[in-house]
Amino acid sequence: LIAEVKRLSSELDTLTSQINQLRISNSEYGAKNIIRLKKIKSLQSMNKIFNSKLASAQKDAFSTQKEIVKKESEIISLKSELTNIKNELMNTKDELASKIKKIEYLDALRSVSQKTKDILDPVESKTHCSAIVMG
Question: What residue ranges carry the coiled-coil annotation (predicted)?
Fold first, then answer.
C-alpha cells in the first residue's frame, strides 16, 4: 500500500507538473494570441484606411477620365473649327489673288491707255494747229 501511495504521489506530482507546464504554455499562448489579435486589429484598421484611399483614388481617376474625355471632345471641336477657318482663309486668299490679277490687268490697261493718249495728243495737237493755220 505504501508503494501504491508513493506511485500515486509520484503520478500526482507528474500530473501537477504537467498541469503547471500547460498553464505556463497556455499563458504564453494567451500572450502571443493577444499580440496577434492586436496585430490583426491594426492590419484591419490599415486595410480600412487603404480601402478608403483606394475608393478616393478611383473616384479621382474617374473624374480625371471624364475631364480627359471632355477635353478630347473640345480638341476635336476646335480642330474642326480650325479646319473651317483654314478653308475660309484659302477661299479668301484665292478671291484676293483673283482681285489682284484684275487690278493688275486694269493698271496695265490704264497704262496702255495713257501711253496711247500720250502718243495721240501731240498728233491731235499738230492736226488741230494745221487745221487752224490752213483754215
Answer: 68-102
